[in-house]
Amino acid sequence: MITKDYIIRAPEGIHARPAAALVKLTRQFKAVIHLQKGEKKAPLNSLLNLLSVGAKGGDTITLFIEGEEESSAADALDQFFNDLKE
Question: What pTM value is reported for the model?
């Protein structure tokens, strides 16, 4: 299992458009990926799960990545969150 922390740098947080892109990205890998913010934890297999966490700009989130392609998924997620600035 790989655990990674990110600070949401986009002022509007993870709204519908980046959330949809994130779910689409995670579905490409044979790995189970969960996102946690505070006490809320949700699998990243649907847009509603992700939006229910309510990640806003400045929040710290934690990703839990486990499975066959966890390394590849972690690399792709690093790139996604590094690009999520606006």
Answer: 0.87
- The whole domain housing 24 covers 2-83
Chain CA centroid to CA 11, Å = 16
Q: In the annotation, is 15 catalytic?
A: yes
- Give the count of domains, the chain: 1
- The one catalytic residue among 7, 11, 12, 15: 15
- 44, 34 contact by CB (below 8 A): yes
List the pLDDT tens digit at each of the 86 positions of the chain: 999 999 999 888 888 899 999 999 999 999 999 999 999 999 998 899 899 999 998 999 999 999 999 999 999 999 999 887 75
Q: What CATH number does residue 42 fall under?
A: 3.30.1340.10
Bridge partner list, 3: 64
